[in-house]
Specification:
Elements (H helix, E strand, L loop, with lengths): L3 H11 L4 E5 L2 E4 H17 L7 E5 L4 H13 L2 E5 L5 H11 L3 E5 L3 H6 L8 E4 L8 E2 H6 L14 E6 L9 E5 H14 L7 E4 L6 H12 L3 E4 L5 H10 L4 E4 L1 H8 L14 E4 L6 H11 L3 E6 L8 E3 L8 E5 L5 E5 L15 E6 L13 H7 E2 L2 E10 L5 E6 L4 E3 L2 E3 L1 H9 L4 E11 L3 E10 L5 H10 L10 E4 L13 H5 L13
Parallel strand pairs: 1-11, 3-4, 3-5, 5-6, 6-7, 10-11, 12-13, 13-14, 25-26
Antiparallel strand pairs: 1-2, 8-9, 14-15, 15-16, 16-21, 17-18, 18-20, 19-20, 20-21, 22-23, 24-25
Helix pairs in contact: 1-3, 2-3, 7-8, 10-11
């Protein structure tokens, strides 16, 4: 298989003059982009960086971040992109954990870099204006002409390392090889039916597997990666219209914000023909709203992870709401009994259990970075234990019901938050909803729904809605909390743990008028 540097060279050979990347006033063809990438590779040589070494980036989704990504692939460096909101101690952890030999950052991360104990011990590359505190300038590095870069590593070399977000423990490094990255990109193209010259909104962070996949997928088809450094709904809508975006690949939260924005009705989104989502389940209500708003030719529910990019694919997401579909092109999936020690303790159809994926997938990682205890927990019998709960229906389609840790056990019954959230999302008075289990002396835990309202609605009305929808009595929320906002991560994932911890702001309950 091609390494990613060779893959990019092949893209340049096919479509040298095709537009490759857009970022405000920056518009580069594939040939022009390769010239900038080549200059960076030469600059890496001047820094004495060697193949196999790690370069950390603390950047938003700007063209410089994408260029650094590709330059690392040519040079054989392992790029380690982290959240641009990272604090000094988080940056120090990553630098020390991966043994970084250089770091690139922009102004927004400047204060954290200055407070970092370790950033000053390695070469620092400043990106954009006013970043300061760096020995090297990205602008100067790419301005120096250089011979066209030649790929230096094979497909089995390390490409990048993503860090999973930690909750109670430190984040885990997920190293991935060139071959796994490229195969995941190829599968993404095939499973989303991307055509030559597609245009995607590059807003999912390049420190997140969805962002990286969009970047690689566009390169494989002579497509355009339209950068949006950080998500802003108005700007996203403007870019969709101005750049004639053809496909969107976002987490459900961002879709929610787009279709509920006042400017949406006045924005021409007819160029968007393909929708894809991942990162979290999508409620039935939002699926319906998006289908009405975009009338997409393809609506894909992609279920996967940083560790193994694709688990399952449902290319007709709106026709079977909540369904994650069947295994992707490079995967086999099982559901095992909850608490199973082995991947061979299979659950029967309709029985909720833990979802496991074959670790031999061409898209898979091979284990966490310096975390043997995490490997022992997640990698067993040649299968990856996802930590997600779900079940197969009678058609053999997978439904993801939540996380093993999120399962609510109330009065001895297992309750999945996702089912209740989808039910409540269909009420017109609900804008967003999250369901968690809170401690209760009698029941162990009770089901509590946190609701951000779209209009006047009371707890009694929502309870009647659940009852009318056929939700079992033990699944119906025993309490409704009306909140100003549902807490989410920087990439839009619901943070249930913050609700459990009480980290939310109440809104005074309103009655239906």
């Amino acid at each position: 298989m091609f390494d990613l540097g060779t893959s990019f060279m092949a893209s340049v050979a096919r479509d040298p003059d095709a537009l490759a990347i857009v970022d405000a006033d920056v518009r580069l063809s594939y040939a022009q982009w390769l010239a900038r990438i080549s200059s960076l590779v030469a600059a890496f040589d001047g820094m004495s960086l060697k193949a196999g070494e790690h370069l950390v980036t603390v950047l938003q989704n700007r063209w410089e971040a994408a260029t650094l990504h590709w330059a690392c692939q040519f040079a054989g460096l392992t790029i380690v992109p982290i959240n641009w909101r990272a604090k000094a101690d988080e940056i120090d952890f990553v630098i020390e954990n991966c043994g970084a030999r250089a770091i690139a950052f922009e102004a927004v991360a400047g204060p954290a870099i200055r407070e970092s104990r370790l950033a000053s011990s390695i070469p620092r590359i400043t990106v954009g204006a006013d970043a300061g505190q760096a020995e090297l300038s990205f602008t100067e590095m790419v301005a120096e002409p250089a011979a066209t870069a030649v790929p230096r590593v094979a497909a089995d070399a390390w490409s990048l390392m993503l860090y999973t977000s930690g909750t109670t423990a430190k984040p885990k490094g997920v190293p991935r090889r060139h071959r796994a990255e490229r195969m995941a990109g190829l599968a993404h193209v095939a499973q989303n039916l991307y055509a030559n010259g597609e245009r995607t909104l590059g807003v999912m962070p390049l420190y997140h597997t969805m962002g990286v996949r969009s970047l690689i997928a566009m390169s494989l088809i002579g497509g355009v990666f339209v950068c949006q450094p950080r998500f802003d709904v108005g700007q996203a809508l403007a870019l969709i219209e101005a750049e004639a975006i053809t496909n969107l690949y976002l987490v459900p939260t961002l879709y929610h914000d787009v279709v509920h924005h006042p400017l949406f009705a006045r924005t021409d989104v007819t160029s968007v023909r393909k929708l894809g989502f991942a990162g979290a389940p999508m409620t039935d209500g939002l699926l319906r709203k998006l289908t009405e708003a975009f009338s997409p030719e393809l609506f894909v529910n992609h279920y996967g992870s940083s560790e193994i990019y694709t688990f399952t694919i449902n290319q007709k997401a709106a026709r079977k709401p909540g369904c994650a579909g069947k295994a992707g092109l490079n995967q086999l999936i099982r559901v095992v009994k909850l608490g199973a020690a082995s991947a061979h303790e299979l659950a029967v159809a309709g029985e909720e259990g833990e979802i496991v994926a074959l670790a031999a997938s061409d898209e898979a990682f091979e284990g966490y970075w310096k975390r043997p205890e995490a490997d022992a927990k997640s990698l067993r019998d040649g299968w990856y234990f996802t930590g997600d709960t779900g079940y197969f229906d009678g058609d053999g389609d997978l439904y993801v019901s939540g996380r093993v840790d999120d399962m609510i056990i109330t009065g001895g019954e297992n309750v999945s938050p996702v089912e209740i959230e989808s039910c409540l999302s269909l009420h017109p008075g609900v804008s967003e909803v999250a369901v968690v289990g809170l401690p209760d002396e009698r029941w162990g835990k009770i089901v509590v729904a946190f609701v951000q309202r779209a209009g006047p609605v009371s707890a009694d009305e929502l309870d009647q809605h659940c009852k009318a929808a056929g939700l079992a009595n033990f699944k119906r929320p025993r309490r409704f909390e009306f909140v100003k906002a549902i807490p989410k991560s920087p990439v839009g994932k619901l943070l249930r743990r913050e609700l459990v911890a009480g980290a939310y702001e109440r809104e005074q309950p309103a009655t239906a008028g």
